[in-house]
């Protein structure tokens, strides 16, 4: 109960010490469009923040709750949140300049459908969901919706603007073929080998085994005799699994040849190349769409970055932003 009362006190203090706001409760105006105290409080969600802090660190919670400095930290946090809201609103207004801002009705339809679909999946109604949100210190369902409305407005407006800016991006056949030819290795499978291979720590033993194999014994019988669990390696890509020095011998050995013992790092290898599948490259038509999507994506990314660097920076500098929310205020007794 004491912690709950402290929480109410600090939340109330943040409201009292924030500033004497106009009757409209406007905390900022961006190019004539207002951001309200209600929006700021909803985005900052100090109550949820404080509850979370109290559950993790009681000492820090006490400092925030019982000191003027603690209250100022929260006020500064809210100012950072407000700056974020201002920047997001600038993005929406920038999108509007190019006809990419969603209407309020469009945004609400999207969010309401998302919530409706979620409730159907969970098999609950809005009243139950509202109770859950409040229990989880996430505010009411209406608070939740309003936060989603704004975030959806920002994200979908940004998505629409991206599509507007990059709609003329294209990839020519020449570009596709040029990329394919320069990156042919990326669309190739390496040479693969099927080997019968065993290794010993003793050279004399390895030589004796080699003689047995030449005399007609199989790798299978040798493996069984010496307790070797694995001796068959199928479709091993070149330059994998085995030491590089050994691969020099494998790659130069004719198919069907028996080689060894070969000393590599004090191990004596005996192997037979059973089969070789040469490197194979995918045909251009098989990878055409993949290459096109990759090049197009890169072009759009560059177009977008250049556009934002030049046009949005200019729009932001020319915008009028008035902030009425103060931070460095003295506590009232």
Automatic annotation (TrEMBL):
Domain of life (superkingdom): Bacteria
Q: Which InterPro entries match?
A: PPIase_dom_sf, PPIase_PpiC, PrsA_foldase, Trigger_fact/SurA_dom_sf
Q: Name one Pfam family in it.
A: SurA_N_3
Organism equals Thermosipho africanus (strain TCF52B)
In alphabetical order, the GO MF annotations are: peptidyl-prolyl cis-trans isomerase activity
Q: Which residues cross the membrane?
A: none
Q: Where is the signal peptide?
A: none
- Could you tell me which residue ranges the PpiC domain spans? 171-289
Its protein name is Basic membrane protein, putative
């Amino acid at each position: 109960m004491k912690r709950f009362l402290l929480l109410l006190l600090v939340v109330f203090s943040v409201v009292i010490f924030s500033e004497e706001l106009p009757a409209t409760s406007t905390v900022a105006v961006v190019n004539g469009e207002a951001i309200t105290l209600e929006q700021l409080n909803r985005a900052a969600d100090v109550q949820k923040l404080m509850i979370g802090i109290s559950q993790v660190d009681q000492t820090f919670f006490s400092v925030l709750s019982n000191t003027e400095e603690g209250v100022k930290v929260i006020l500064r946090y809210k100012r950072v949140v407000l700056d974020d809201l201002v920047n997001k609103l600038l993005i929406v207004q920038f999108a509007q300049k190019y006809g990419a801002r969603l209407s309020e009705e469009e945004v609400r339809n999207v969010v309401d459908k998302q919530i409706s679909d979620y409730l159907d999946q969970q098999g609950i109604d809005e009243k139950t969901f509202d109770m859950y949100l409040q229990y989880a210190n996430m505010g009411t369902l209406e608070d939740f919706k309003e936060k989603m409305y704004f975030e959806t407005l920002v994200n979908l407006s940004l998505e629409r603007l991206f599509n507007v800016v990059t709609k003329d991006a294209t990839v020519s056949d020449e570009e596709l073929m040029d990329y394919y030819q320069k990156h042919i290795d990326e669309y190739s499978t390496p040479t693969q080998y099927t080997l019968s291979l065993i290794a010993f720590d003793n050279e004399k033993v390895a030589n004796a085994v080699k003689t047995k194999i030449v005399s007609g014994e199989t790798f299978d019988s040798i493996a069984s005799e010496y307790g070797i669990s694995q001796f068959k390696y199928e479709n091993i890509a070149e330059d994998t699994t085995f030491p590089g020095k050994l691969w020099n011998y494998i790659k130069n050995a004719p198919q069907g040849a028996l080689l060894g013992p070969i000393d590599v790092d004090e191990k004596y290898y005996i192997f037979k190349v059973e089969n070789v599948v040469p490197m194979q490259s995918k045909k251009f038509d098989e990878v055409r769409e993949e290459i096109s999507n990759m090049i197009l994506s890169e072009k759009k990314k560059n177009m977008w970055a250049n556009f934002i660097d030049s046009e949005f920076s200019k729009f932001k500098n020319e915008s009028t932003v008035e902030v009425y929310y103060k931070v460095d205020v003295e506590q009232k007794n």
